[in-house]
Amino acid sequence: MSLDVPAALLSRAATGEVDDAEFVDCVRDSLPYAWAVVSDVAARAATGTAQFADHAVPPPGEAERGQLLRALASDAIRGGLERHFGVKLAFQNCHRVAAFPLAAVGGDAYRRFVSPEAQIRNQSPELRDC
Questions:
Q1: Cα(122)–Cα(114) distance, integer angstroms
Q2: CA dist., res. 51 & res. 111, Å (int)
Q3: In this model, does residue 121 exceed pLDDT 90?
Q4: Angle at which helices 32-46 and 62-73 pack, to 10 degrees?
Q5: Is the pLDDT of residue 50 over 50?
Q6: Cα 50 from chain centroid?
Q7: Exposure b/e, 67-80, CB count within 10 A at least 16 = b
Q8: What is this structure's pTM?
Q9: What is the distance, to the nearest Å, from the Cα of residue 84 to the centroid of all Cα atoms in its chain?
Q10: In whole angstroms, what is the distance from residue 130 CA to residue 49 CA?
Q11: What is the pLDDT of residue 59?
Q12: Mean pLDDT, rounded, of the chain
């Protein structure tokens, strides 16, 4: 799925006039699967009932996997989502997405989630779904 950017937004981007709200709206509209996953984990992380919230269900197809990869691999998109939802996002194995409350960043649960060991344990020997 391509990031369909409205012409007016492209014009403002050329002059440096795009604000976070416009950018996040564009992400929501153009990457609906990624938006739904991030919205869900962010909302659950905000409840404070756990150290973080994650979504580990493989996407239903390659288009949806592409949306997750695009949203979480792009510094601009990921940063916009993090600022919008007030969380730190973490990502493993092409589809496991987690949201951490900002106060949890640097804590034990966060360090374990982003460790190389956690990445290795989160994938099968065949590296499926990646």
A1: 11
A2: 12
A3: no
A4: 60
A5: yes
A6: 19
A7: bbbbbbeeeebbeb
A8: 0.85
A9: 11
A10: 30
A11: 94
A12: 87
User: CB–CB of 97/68 below 8 Å?
Assistant: yes
- Are the beta carbons of 31 and 24 closer than 8 angstroms? no
Residue keyed to tokens 């779904």: 129
pLDDT in tens, 18-44: 888 888 999 999 999 999 999 999 999
Paired tokens of 21: 């709200």
Interstrand relation of 96-101 and 87-92 (parallel, antiparallel or unpaired): antiparallel
- Dihedral, CA of residue 47, residue 29, residue 56 and residue 113, to nearest 10: -70
* Burial of residue 82 (number of CB atoms within 10 Å: 0-12, 13-18, 19+): middle
Report the amino acid identity of residue 62: E
The residues near 85 (Cβ < 8 Å, ≥ 6 apart) are 38, 39, 42, 46, 99
Measured CA distances, 56 to 12, 46, 68, 95 (Å): 37, 18, 12, 6
Residue 6 predicted with pLDDT over 80: no
Q: What are phi and psi of 89, to 5 degrees?
A: -90, 145
